[in-house]
Specification:
Blueprint lengths: L19 H7 L31 E4 L1 E2 L5 E2 L12 E2 L4 E4 L6 H4 L15 E6 L6 E4 L1 E2 L12 E5 L11 E2 L54 H7 L2 E12 L6 E10 L13 E7 L4 E3 L2 E2 L2 E4 H11 L1 E2 L18 E3 L2 E3 L6 E11 L5 E11 L6 E11 L10 E3 L1
Parallel strand pairs: 8-10
Antiparallel strand pairs: 1-5, 2-3, 3-4, 6-11, 7-9, 9-22, 11-21, 12-20, 12-22, 13-14, 13-16, 13-21, 15-16, 17-20, 18-19, 20-23
Length: 399
């Protein structure tokens, strides 16, 4: 798997102490051209498991019609019949090897009806402690949505997993003054991500409308970037994927935590998570909650009414739990004992696609302004969605 420490093409090798698989990833050659040239290694399929699979993977099956198309449970057209498309009819989980893309359900070995191949996967995190592929994060709330592991990426650092492949962070560690990591500071956004508006043909002002195909059609990144850029402690991953026939979208599970909320909810230049898509269907950031960026500033009103704060039990063991003993406020909420951090709960990110096109996806997690407080994201369970979503209506993040 190619790795990089700055913009998408150039970079440096990634090392991780967690497993032999990650050591292998760390010594792969870095892509040196505008297109990422090297593809992540996969298991060779030797050996047979009790369920008959050749690679140790497990497969979940969806309803399948006689012509081999997939019928997604619970979907229907305006006429009532189920929506059918050419996405894989099953899902092979192969996330037992420490590979970050396998952990979220992509690039597994197998047949065309069981797996979703990807092209040119890159994980750019020179600090191996800024990400983990684990079974549990903090407490049982944060366990895989599919398979046996999930991916964690942070602007801070993560301890090694214990013998049960579980990670727990002590109280207060995520809001430390020296809360950064060894990932690059002073960085531009990884290509093709740009903060400039992409709506209304690039003029901006009407998010998700008349995308120019180059800038951010959500218009959500410019203000945070101008207030807090360049990026600090930047970690990112990227891949290309070919959209199956008659498939209008996809979805992926995501959970977000930050120690910048409530403390910095009035400051636009706070840590931000970006899920960037470049495609015929849409180009821009999709990590938006009700149209706002996934940051302490953008998500504060949503978190105050629907999110996790302070001593809410799902935050225990994440490092984002606990209170300060001082009063504070969020939009629409006041606290006598201010939370140290906040979280979103599990969300689903919905994205659109054009059948048969090749999409480019980038996930970037970064500090803005400084690296004093950490932000962490969990990612798992990529799946195609036959019916898709409409930008500006139901694409982006939803509970």
């Amino acid at each position: 798997m190619p790795t990089s420490s700055a913009a998408r093409p150039p970079g440096s090798p990634l090392a991780s102490p967690q497993s032999a698989a990650r050591v292998l990833l760390g010594i792969l050659v870095v892509a040196a051209s505008c297109r990422r040239e090297h593809v992540i290694g996969v298991l060779d399929g030797s050996g047979t498991t009790e369920d008959g699979s050749a690679d140790g993977s497990t497969t979940e099956r969806a309803g399948t019609s006689l012509d081999g198309t997939i019928t997604m449970t619970g979907e229907s057209s305006s006429d009532g019949p189920p929506i059918e498309c050419g996405a894989p009819t099953g899902h092979s989980a192969c996330d037992f090897d420490g590979d970050p893309f396998h952990a979220i359900g992509l690039g597994c070995p197998g047949g065309e009806q069981d797996t979703q191949p990807i092209l040119d996967p890159v994980l750019a995190s020179p600090d191996p402690d800024a990400w983990r592929v684990i079974r549990e994060y903090g407490n049982p709330t944060w366990t895989p949505r599919e398979g046996s592991t999930l991916l964690v990426v942070t602007t801070g650092t993560l301890p090694l997993a214990d013998d049960s492949n579980r990670v727990e962070l002590p109280l207060g560690v995520t809001d430390a003054v020296d809360g950064g990591n060894g990932n690059p500071d002073g960085e531009d956004l990884p290509a093709p991500v740009v903060p400039s508006p992409g709506s209304m043909g690039g003029a901006g002002g009407r998010p998700f409308s008349a995308c120019d195909g180059l800038g951010d059609c959500s218009d959500s990144l410019l203000e945070p970037w101008q207030a807090g850029g360049p990026a600090q402690d930047l970690a990112w991953m990227a891949f290309d994927v070919d959209v199956p026939a008659d498939t209008a979208g996809y979805r992926v599970a995501l959970a977000w935590f930050t120690a910048e909320l409530p403390a910095r909810h009035t400051e636009p230049g706070t840590d931000v998570v970006v899920w960037w898509q470049s495609s015929e269907a849409y180009t821009g950031n999709l990590a938006t909650l009700e149209g706002a960026p996934l940051s302490a500033w953008g998500a504060a009103p949503w978190v105050a009414s629907q999110g996790l704060l302070g001593n809410d039990s799902p935050l225990f063991g994440t490092g984002f739990d606990g209170t300060t003993g001082n009063p504070c406020e969020l939009p629409g909420a006041s606290f006598v004992d201010c939370p140290r951090g906040a979280g979103s709960g599990w969300l689903t990110l919905w994205g659109p696609s054009a059948p048969g096109e090749r999409m480019s996806i980038v996930l970037a997690v970064m500090d803005l302004m400084d690296d004093d407080r950490d932000t962490t994201v969990l990612v798992d369970d990529w799946r195609w969605h036959c019916e898709g979503c409409q930008p500006g209506l139901d694409c982006g993040l939803r509970p």
